[in-house]
UniProtKB/TrEMBL annotation:
Domain PDZ intervals: 442-525
Single biological process term from Gene Ontology: proteolysis
Transmembrane domains' residue ranges: 189-207
Coiled coil residues, start to end: none
InterPro entries documented for this protein: Chloro_Bact_Ser_Proteases, PDZ, PDZ_sf, Peptidase_S1_PA, Peptidase_S1_PA_chymotrypsin, Peptidase_S1C
Protein name: Serine protease
One Pfam family per UniProt: PDZ_2
Length: 535
């Protein structure tokens, strides 16, 4: 069947699904406003006038109390509703006391928590009736949840007509005004000074305690003990020997044009004679404008002249004009033994009056000398020592523990290229016995004659014995007159064994010219002893 069109009143009225009639409008008045006649139903607003009257079921009083509107209220909330709780159905357990105390109203306050800004208007102003926020076309942005946040005035406004008080800074007092301007009473100044002194004293005391106890490793009261100095040095000590010998050792300086060199020397005679090495002064021997000078331990510089020199033993003698010089005592090299204590005194590397100490490492060590840029070509019967000897020590003194000169320092053995290295504990000195003999000849005659055998030899060995094999015998030499032939191996000269060519030269130099000595040779496996008179 066709359904009749509904009026606007019917369209806005819900219907009861059981009776197909409009349901009771929940927007009803309290039961006291209803028809209290004995009928079971009452007419409903909005019923069609031409139809049967609408009947609704009776509303439960409890539901009406919970969901119904108060009397005279047409909106959802009534801001001016009288205080007091309305009868409601308990839907949840009672609120815990802690939450009620934290979030509930204070005792005796019935003010609603939902207030409009108009509630905070000044006293005396009557706020106008505020419409419900969802009624009307224009909605209050303060109540609209979709309104964007904007910057506005502070939440708390200052009362009208009042200004914030700002403390004005008082003018500062200078020290001059305090002391001389009479702005402060003298008694107050005195009290302030006493307080400052007390504070300073307390701070100083605390600072002292902190400084003393802050570092446990320091102690300001410690005084280091000192022993009494012992100036009584034995005569055989290094210091005692050095004090006696250093004044007799000089530094020798040679200058030829723009070139120069330094060495050492020893005063051996009271007339000013100084012995040194030939390679120290050889560059100035044949040069007229050469300058040779000596520097003593007290710093005095004295010119020197070359008396004579011997390239065969690398010795030379100088003469200085000095009144009453300190003269070194000459000992004996024949009595030296390996292990004896010795000291080297000279000017190594230009450092005057340098003293080093060591021992005798070896004696009768044949060492060939070939000075660069000099005419020195000698083989010496050297004393070997481990006392530090460096370039500049040449011509200096090798002294025993009694203060006697036992050798003249001459050469060193190094590992450096070209002999430029320093001391490695292998220094060599000419025995003082040889120095004395050569120096006397130079002082007396200005020259030295050396004994010669008249042979050219080379060092050889057969695996069991060493010697010097004769390669050539000079015509008219002492060897030719004694019957020495080419091919003979010389193994002994006098009472000294010969193990090579250098030892043969050293053994011959131990004797004087014209001296007759036995020479032992090996010829075709047989030993022969020949008497040779040295020329």
């Amino acid at each position: 069947m066709n359904e009749q069109p509904r009026t606007s009143a019917e369209q806005g009225t819900p219907r009861d699904p059981n009776t197909d009639t409009p349901a009771a409008n929940t927007d009803h008045a309290p039961r006291s406003d209803r028809d209290t006649s004995g009928s079971d139903t009452a007419p409903v607003r909005g019923a069609r006038p031409d139809g049967p009257p609408l009947r609704t079921p009776e509303v439960d009083p409890a539901e009406a109390a919970v969901f119904g509107r108060p009397a005279g209220v047409s909106g959802s909330f009534d801001r001016h509703a009288p205080p007091g709780p309305a009868p409601r159905v308990e839907q949840a357990p009672p609120t815990p006391e802690s939450l009620a105390k934290a979030f509930g109203r204070p005792p005796g306050v019935s003010e609603s928590l939902q207030r409009s800004p108009a509630d905070s208007a000044p006293a005396g102003d009557t706020p106008e009736e505020e419409p419900v926020f969802w009624e009307g076309d224009e909605q209050d942005p303060w109540r609209d949840p979709t309104t964007g946040a904007v910057l506005g005035s502070p939440a708390l406004t200052e009362p009208h007509g009042t200004e914030r008080s700002r403390a004005e800074h008082a003018p500062l007092l200078s020290a001059r005004e305090v002391l001389f301007g009479r702005r402060v009473r003298p008694r107050s100044l005195a009290a302030l000074g006493i307080v400052a002194l007390l504070i300073g004293a307390a701070g100083g005391f605390l600072g002292r305690l902190t400084a003393e106890e802050g570092n446990p490793l320091t102690d300001p009261d410690v005084t280091l003990a000192a022993v009494e100095p012992n100036n009584d040095r034995p005569a055989g000590s290094v210091a005692g020997v050095a004090s006696r010998v250093v004044p007799a050792v000089v530094s020798v300086e040679v200058r030829v044009g723009s070139q120069g060199g330094t060495g050492s020397g020893v005063v051996i005679d009271g007339n000013g004679y100084v012995v040194t090495n030939n390679h120290v002064v050889s560059m100035a021997a044949d040069t007229p404008d050469a300058e040779v000078s000596t520097v003593f331990s007290d710093g005095s510089r004295v010119p020197a002249r070359i008396v004579g020199r011997d390239p065969g033993t690398d010795l030379a003698v100088l003469k200085v004009e000095v009144a009453n010089p300190t003269v070194a005592q000459l000992g004996s090299s024949e009595d030296l033994r390996v292990g004896d204590r010795v000291m080297a005194i000279g000017s190594p590397l230009g450092l005057e009056s340098t003293v080093t100490s060591g021992i005798i490492s070896s004696v009768h060590r044949p060492v060939r000398l070939a000075g660069e840029d000099t005419d020195t070509n000698a083989v010496i019967d050297a004393i070997q020592t481990d006392a530090a000897v460096n370039p500049g020590n040449s011509g200096g003194a090798l002294v025993d523990e009694n203060g006697a000169v036992v050798g003249i320092n001459t050469a060193i053995r190094t590992l450096g290229a070209g002999g430029e290295g320093g001391s490695i504990g292998l220094g060599f000195a000419i025995p003082i016995d040889e120095v004395r003999r050569i120096a006397q000849q130079l002082i007396r005659t200005g020259e030295v004659r050396h004994p010669e055998l008249g042979v050219d030899v080379k060092s050889v060995t057969d695996g069991t014995a060493d010697g010097a094999q004769v390669q050539n015998v000079r015509e008219g030499s002492a060897a030719q007159r004694a019957g020495i032939s080419e091919g003979d191996v010389i193994i002994e000269v006098g009472d000294r064994e010969v193990g090579g060519a250098d030892e043969l030269e050293v053994a011959v130099n131990d004797h004087e010219v014209g001296e007759r000595i036995p020479v032992t040779v090996v010829r075709r496996g047989r030993e022969l002893v020949l008497d040779v008179t040295l020329h």
